[in-house]
Amino acid sequence: MSRRLLLTVSFLAVAILVGSACSSTPPSPPQGGEGGTLRLAYLADMAQADPDVFYDIEGNTVILSVYEGLLKYKPDSTEFAPSLAESWEVSPDGLTYTFKLRSGVKFQDGTPFDAQAVKTSFQRRLDVGAAPAYMLQPVASMQTPDATTFVIRLKHPVAPFLHYMASSWGPKVISPKALADHAGKDHAQTWLNEHAVGTGPFQLTTFERGQRYELTKFADYWGSKAHLDKVEIRIIPDIGTQRLQLQSGDLDAILHSFPQAELESAKSNPELQVRDFSSFLNNIVYLNTNKKPLSDPALRKALAGAINRDTLVTEVYGPYAKPSSSAYPSGLLDPTLAPVSYPPSETTAPANTGKLTFAYTADDSGVHRRMAELIQQRLDAAGFSVTINEVQLPQVFDYVKDLQAAPDLVMQTNTPDGAHPDMWARIEWYSTGGLNYLGYKNSQADKALDQALETTDKATADRLYGEAGKIVAQDTAIIFIADPRDVMVLRKNLTGVEHVPNYPWALNLAALQKG
Amino acid sequence: MARFTLTRLASLVGILLGLSVIVFLLQAVVPADPVRAMVGASATPQIVEAKRHELSLDRPLPAQYAQFLSRAVRGDLQMSLHTRRPVRTDIAAFLPATLELAATALAMAVVLGGALGLLTARGGATSLRVGLVAGASVPAFLLALLLLIVFYAQLHWFPGSGRISAELEAPTGPTGLLTVDGLLAGRLDVVRDALAHLALPALCLALGPAVALGRTLRSSLQTVLGSDHIRTARAKGLTERGVLLRHGVRPALNAPLTMTGLQVGMLLAGVVVIESIFAWPGLGLYTARAITSVDFPAIVGVTLVMGAVYVIVNALVDLAQVAADPRLRAR
Amino acid sequence: MAASGPVLTPLELTRRRRAWAGWVRVGRLERGGLVVLALTTAVALLAPLLAPYPPTTALPAGSFAAPETHGLLLGSDELARDLFSRVLYGIRASWLSALVVIASGVLIGGLIGTVAGVAGGWLDTALMRFTDLFLALPAAVLVIAVVAALGPSLPHTLVAVAIVWWPWYARIVRGEVRAQAVRSHVDAARLAGVGRTRLALRHLLPGAFPAVLVTASLDVGSLVLILAGLSFIGLGSPPPAPELGAMAARGMPYLFGHPWIPLAPAIAVFLLAFAANLAGDGLRDLLEDH
Q: Which residues of B touch A434 (CB under 8 A)?
């Protein structure tokens, strides 16, 4: 083949490719704020769209747009707002919850909504028995005296029960017809993995696993209809690629994990807006109290002081996080009830401390990595010797099986399922708490929490939660590092931006407007 | 021919067994609790144990392996922990995208490597060689990002991610390869769009193999060009180009063909990073997610499939070698 | 060859002339590559002396210092460490690691290949099947398996990569050994009663040497990239060790605001691989007799 021929062929190939690339038509712009398609991206596939199984954070936007629960939170608040329940009453003994349901609501498949539908969905959550089922475990019985009244009786008082109802992972009402039609052998789990029929302002019209999801406006929604016509969510695993697309106008928003150190340059981009909201995210470091050398409380305190926590938080998060002032994420409980502080101290580690292992899971914004390395740098300067190890979440869950082999320090960023202190303390430092990764045990803290759960008087309960928090703080079993804000980078033309602190990484898509 | 197929099948089975053993051993060595991650932080111990039992994760590892084998021979690769679908279904869904990407990259590598080998066999074409070698020397993640920055963000010549533009509503069957399905359905717009999406990721994957191929071909050609029957051809009065093309290439194909087969392995490995950066919905992406979820059924499934592809490709390469060089048939 | 002493036979003269002609034939680019590699080896060995600061110390200049401020050539990274010093140490780690892996691959592969080639028969077949098994395994899985078993650290990763690397050399050496074995001078030696081991060491291996050297030199470039890729996904020395791949990976979130942080190590990898590739080509031109 002659060189000339080779060149000609290559030139033709490139021309074809370029020609094909340039021939795609851009989508039509929205008119006057109404309509249009919002383009979002997820870093990973949602895995399940089934609200009784889903327990991740990314994916909240889909679940909250398609399904509704009895209650929800008001924007920027922890106050309840009516959703499918117009009003509710709690009996003085805290055992009976009566919900007055909305009438005239239809599911996205046309089925009418009523109390029986609520009961069917709630029962299904218990039958499926997956991650969020714990919220309904205390239920003794559910009654439907009429089509718009739903009554729950609990086995014992549960202080956060209404927060369970409002949580983004709280029980949602699924169309009973869909549940019946696709029941199969697993309560319709296979079908609901990739389909959805709820009462929310959007319908899930496409679920292409690994590629994209599409939400379409539900024209018969009972509340204020969505402004957008469609929402397209693409799976783009690399945050750098997402960023390029946001800058090029192919994406409208990055709702989480924007590289922390680049937020300043995003701010100076005239086409973008950086918005930050309060959240219940909490960056913490667990200490292994079951193993030498950190089984020594004095050493734990010294280590906490050596980190110089406050400057650490400013350096890594900039203005987008506050050093934690309480054992509870800010807004969950009065900070004076369980205060924490770690004044910097010029400690040096005692001579024979030995090596410390520090495990953490990576996040795409680069925060965890940088934080872990900074902590290592500072601890090494104080005479400790720290090895850091990046691991995956299932590995972190395994540590509790062999605490002697587990790392000495574990860093995580967690968030409570709802805006109630019990939903934080119980999973974090209750002796059998699911996120109590390093098996911290303190029977006094457990007792305080057990008492608080069944106390109906809020002030008393709060004091008890405060006590539990104080115990953990004094023991330095957990170092509470920061309360980060929920940071999102949106294109300038997006308005109607509404955020709920307890719905992390999500915006109210029905309120959003483009253009 | 029959003997060839039988020995290859035997080696395929052997290799797949070896791979599965290695991945299972890995499971023993990487302590992880995917069940806890699945059932959530507030699940009761009963639910945790029930799930563990359902997934057979409460049995000792050899028993788990035996169960895996007995299901695998029936084509059942168990359920993925993170998608909760059969691994077989997941792989069937994600494999075509990777095959299309790998095949395009291989074709590019053959064309570029072939051109490189042919043009540099007698010296010359230095700029092409330097360009390709430079491209092959850039770390993959950086090359991918640079290509995206230049050709997508700055020049807008190519799309930023994915396989196809959503508005086109591309056909979803029968092969799952968008270029082929588009052709079969007579949708040239789909074919063009799919090619545009393929261009950058395939190029990233192709550069390394192209350079390796080009080198091997060049070396091979130079050996052949110095041999006796070439001298005869020259003596017959053919031009250098004619000598090269008519008598030089065919016997020189042996080593490059082997190299092509081996490079498929490199391609399949490179796919994990490239698919992540270009949001290509293929097995690489699936694997990356399986690793972060420590989803062993999925990891085993993908390893077996990739291993099988690799062995099959190399078997085809051996066949092609025999076809190209009759001297090998005598064995 | 009985010649010893200063007088050169006509054959040797031709050889030497050919060698010089070969060196001249090696293009300028390739020679440049070799020079860069020589420099790299010097840098790798002398990094502790050349680096202005220790690679893991936080400097008073603070994080994200711009290049050429505070006396830092490339500025500081996200943990206030001197980027230039880290790149120098990173080059040291990458280069020496690549050489170690190649050397062990050549030794192990060479040993197995020689035994297979000399022994022939069932031993040859068995060894070659064993080699094929390793060639067929997806390298990535194997490396991850070994590192997971042993824990992430540089020596563990090198062991894992070496395990995957030797089969190539086994095949080459076996092929060369068998080709050499049918050459006339070896035949003569065997007929004269020279023992197998001596035969292998003095007649077969030297003949295999050029092919091995060519492959090894071409491999160095790929190896640098592969090691960088592995440390990119976290299989290498754990932080804060300066390793080029890990530095580039951990620097990615800063790519747009502070590009030098991921680009400096990535460019270092590129230059190393590029120079190794060109030099490898040059060596191949030099050593292969056409």
A: 36, 40-43
DSSP string of A87-144? Answer: EEEE-TTS-EEEEEEPSS-B-TTSPBP-HHHHHHHHHHHHHH--GGGGGGTTEEEEEE
Which residues 6+ apart lie within 8 Å of A50 measured at CB?
A128, A189, A192, A193
pLDDT above 80 (res C14): no
- Most A-contacting residue of B26, B29, B33, B221 (CB-CB within 10 A), to test interface: B33
Answer whether A373 touches C (CB < 8 Å).
yes
Rounded to an integer, the average pLDDT of A262-281 is 93
Strands A37-42 and A230-235: parallel
Q: Would you call A134 and B281 a contact, using CB atoms and an 8 Å cutoff?
A: no
Judged against a pLDDT cut of 90, whether residue A469 lies above it is answered with yes
Closest Cα in chain A to C252: A240
Q: Is A55 exposed, middle or buried (0-12, 13-18, 19+ CB in 10 A)?
A: buried
Find which of A241, A308, A360, A374 to mutate to test the C interface (most C CBs within 10 Å of its CB): A374
Q: Is the CB of B22 inside 8 Å of chain C's CB atoms?
A: yes
- Alpha helices in chain C, H assignment, sequence order: 10-25, 28-50, 83-119, 121-136, 139-150, 154-181, 184-191, 196-199, 205-232, 244-251, 260-287
Terminal CA-CA length for chain C: 23
Residues of A in contact with B165 (CB under 8 A): 24
Of the candidates A503, A160, A78, the residue with the CA atom closest to the CA atom of residue A330: A78
CB B67 within 8 A of CB B55: no
CA neighbor of A415 nearest in space, from A427, A400, A407: A427
Give A85's strand partners: A101
Of A3, A236, A393, the CB nearest to B279: A236
Distance from CA of C226 to the nearest CA of A (A): 20
Q: Which residues of B are less than 8 Å from C270 in CB distance? A: 134, 137-139, 142
Q: Nearest by CB to B152, which of A208, A211, A248? A: A248
Comparing A340-349, A411-420, C70-79, which segment has the lowest mean pLDDT? A340-349
Question: Model confidence over A381-395: pLDDT tens digits?
Answer: 888 999 988 888 888
Query: What confidence category does residue B32 fall into, taking pLDDT thresholds of 50, 70 and 90?
Result: confident
Give the number of other Cβ atoms within 10 Å of residue C185's Cβ.
11
- Judge whether A491 is closer than 8 Å to chain C, CB to CB: no
Strand, coil or helix: what is C1?
Answer: coil
Q: Which position has the token pair 């001298």?
A: B231
Can you tell me the distance from the alpha carbon of A82 to that of A62, in angstroms, rounded to the nearest whole number?
Answer: 20
Q: Does B147 touch chain C (CB under 8 A)?
A: no
Q: pLDDT digits over C125-151, tens only? A: 888 878 877 776 666 667 776 776 676
Residue B89 has pLDDT above 60, yes or no: yes
- What tokens appear for A468 in the block? 């539990």
DSSP for A4-51 reads HHHHHHHHHHHHHHHHHHTTPPPPPPPBTTB--EEEEEESS--S---T
pTM to 2 decimals?
A: 0.86
Q: State whether B281 and A210 contact (CB < 8 Å).
A: yes
Per-residue pLDDT averaged across C217-227, rounded? 82
Range from A415-429, C134-148, C203-217 that averages highest in pLDDT:
A415-429
Rounded to an integer, what distance in angstroms lies between the CA atom of residue A479 and that of residue A341?
Answer: 9
